Every structure is written in structure tokens, then in C-alpha cells.
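Protein in question kept in full:
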Amino acid sequence: MIMKSLRSRRFLALAAALTVASAGLTGCGGSDSDDTGSSRTAPIRALLAAQPATLDPIVGARSAQIVWATMLEPLINTGSDLAPTDTGLVTSWTRTDATTWTFKVRPDISFSNGEKADAAAVANTITLTRDSAASQLKTYFGNVTAIEAPDATTVVVKTKTPQYDIPDLLTTVYLVPPKYYQEKGSEGFAAAPVGTGPYVWSGANAGRDISVKRNPDYWGTKATNEGVTFTWANEAAQRLALIQSKSVDVSFDLPPAQASAAKSAGVEVVSTETAMKIIAFLDSTKAPFDDPKLREAAALAIDRDAIVKGIFDGQAVADAGLLNVKPGQQPTQSVTADAAKAKELLGGATPTVQITYPAAQYTNIEEVSQAVGGSLEKAGFKVSYVPLDYGTLVKRIVGRQVPGLSIFAGVPNVAVPDYFVSGFMKTKSITGNCPDPQIDTLAQQALEQNDAQQAAPLYEQLNTIGVVQKHCYVPLYRQVFNYATGPGVSGVVFGPLNTVDFTKATR
């Protein structure tokens, strides 16, 4: 019943927002015409759900890589199976011994400003990733003790203890030019990024749009189109209206209601099950969830299947695990919702719980948060809601200032379980919500295995401890990402790790 009322309100909001959006299409970066006379190589007009917080890949959340990855490239590319390949800037790697990795860098590559994209640049970027105070990936490289470039095409990375996934981690490390980055600093670099990619910076109108143009000197296959112009609209109904009016060529992140409306209107919609999962994090270090019984009650109260069915009309995938990072995977053990048992565990108590979430950051996140809160209230919890902008939420989580339950996405930019173990489970992790020496020990043991296959049983054990036994994490669902393309638009490729390839797109 809660879900149905939420869906009704969503429909009314959609109708109202469509009216507003249709009346002011050019107000958020759309063109006054559909530009139908443009050639097939004309710039692609891409509409995002939100303005990127920063275009600096060292400190920026990977949600913004859809923009910066047009200009910058990861050190190692991934294939269709999300595993590292030899097609990128780094062409091979060998494990010289248990704690030493040697990487070969593609020769004769330059940044668009003329700096050499050699082994020294690669070593510098890895060092920045490990040492920068605000680095998003800092915790993942804490085991790295030395990064050296003995010659122009060789990088040697040494770790304190064995770590099998170093090549995997480099698939989400984007190469930056050493001299330019040092001169400009993080903010200066973000204002005009320089990379080795198929596009180069073209300009931006503050708060309105960002443009890149084709890199004529790109070392790989050059882009088919002349460039990409990014605009953004927070309201999903506006993103739908803009694609329907042909004011944009591709509209990203359409919730189920808007995706269905687009299909009904004859607009082509592509749906991709992603690796991004929405998770409820319970802080076991503070009341009320320092009580294991209350964590279990909360985990049993939340019905992920009802959320997927009621809010997403089935256009999401209920996900019961934390460390099953690739689409299609599920854990061997999980928690099944049981409202009666949840209420029984509370025993008539009415503990207060705060639910914190990033307002407007993810598809239908407001409704999801309300649904989670409604389930907790039925069990007997008293619930309050704290919506925050994404940047503020991240800062508070890192500062251990989010008690109770927080809801946000886990995006395994690297499709290995340790990406979530190091990010969320270790005592010294981003969230730090479930400190446990046993988890730290198992996490270390897993990394010291020879490869992912040998580590798999340890990750299953870690998932069981965190999700099934300690109830520090309540996985909710894996997002199905919808995007719509305009008439005649083809070649836009969205990947499950939140990546987009625009190079073959035409309109």
C-alpha cells in the first residue's frame, strides 16, 4: 500500500514536471532547434542527471567519469567480462614476486598538452592516488610501499604484503599529466582537464554545460563525431521532455516511469543491468545499531523485493549480497525479510533511527528511503529522515558523523570483491561502520591469495559475516540504468561499470 501511494504521487509529479520542462527546454542547456540539418559527425548532445561535482579523477567520485573519461584514460582497460585487458595505456603486467608487480607502458604516447604520457607519468598518477589527502581511492593503495619508473616504459609497484588485484585497481586510475596537475592543483585541473583520450577540453559555461571536442592527435581510433556537449537536468521528467523534443541526443538515467513513457512515445530506450547497487549501511559503532539485536531487526524488516516491485515496477534487480560485484551474481547466503520476527526482536521497544540519504543523487532514492523507513516503523522503530547533497553525505560518512542508517550506492568501479571490502568493510575503510578484527584478518588473507579464484571462498565468508551474521549491511537492489536516444542517434555504449563510450556515436 505504501508503494502504491508512492507510485501515485510519482505520476502526479511527472505530469506537473513535464508541463514545466516543456515550457522551458532551452533553460537547462537544450538547443532552440533539433538541429536536424547537422551532419552525422556533429557533436553529440548528452544530458546528465546532475552536474559533475569535479572533473579531477584523483579526488572525484566515479559518477563523474562519464565526462572526464572522454578526455582521460584509465591506466588499464577492461573487456566485456570486466577483467583487465592489454588494449590501453598499460599493455602488460607480470608478478615478479609475491609483492612486486611490473607494468609495461605503451610507448610514444603524449598528453594533449604535449607532456609525455610515459612510465614516469603513470608512477606519478599512482602516487597521487595513494598519497593525496582527498583521494577517492586512497584506502585501496595503502598496501603499496614503492612506485618506481626505472625507464620510460616500465613501472614497478611494490606492496608490503601480497596483493593479487593491483592490475584490477589500475582500471579505475585515470592518467593525469604530472607537470600540469602540479601547476594547476586539483581545482585548476578540474576546470580544464588534460589527458590522453579521444577528446580534449573545449570549454564550459558555469552551471550550464561542458564541451569536449575530438582529439585529432589521439593515439587510438579517433572519434567518429566532432565532440560531446554535456548538460544536466535534475528532474527526470525534464530529461524525458528534452529527449522527446529532440533538444538532446541522449538522455541518461531515466527512472522506470520516464523510461516507460519514452518507449510509449516511440523513443528508443536502452536498459542495462549495472554493477551499481544501493545499500543500507548500519553504523554498529553508535546507538541504536551498536545493539546487534536491533541491527538484525532492521535487516529483517526491510523487504528488498517489495522495493523493486513497488517502486521500480520490477525494473531493478533485488540484491541480497555485498560482495557479489558483477551483474548476475548472488551470494550463497543471504537474509530474507521477516517483518514478524523483526517486530518480535524489538520486543515492544521503540528505538529511534535516523535515515540519511543523498537527495536526488540516485533514481527514486527519496521513495526508496521512505519505503525503508516505513518498513522500520512497522517493526516498531521511530524514524527520522536526513536528506543531504551527495558531497556533504560523503564528508560526514568519512568523518564518522552519520549515526543510524545511511543509504547510498556502492559502485564497484573495479569488478573485484575487495573493492567493497576495502571501501566498506575494513576498520579503516570509507564507511568504517562495522569494525571487526576478524573482517580485517580475512580481508588481508583474501588479498594474499594468488588470484581471484583462490580468494573467492574468503569473500563468501566475509559477505556472510557482514550481511548475514552482523547485519551491518542491508543490500537492496542493483540498478537497471535506462537511457534514451533521439531519432537517428546510434553508437552510444553504456557499460555496467558506469562508463560511456561516445567515440562511435553519430546523429
Remarks:
- Residues 2-23 form the longest helix (22 residues).
- Residues 1-37 have pLDDT under 50 and may be disordered.
- The chain is about 30% helix and 20% strand.
- Residues 300 and 338 are 5 Å apart (CA to CA).
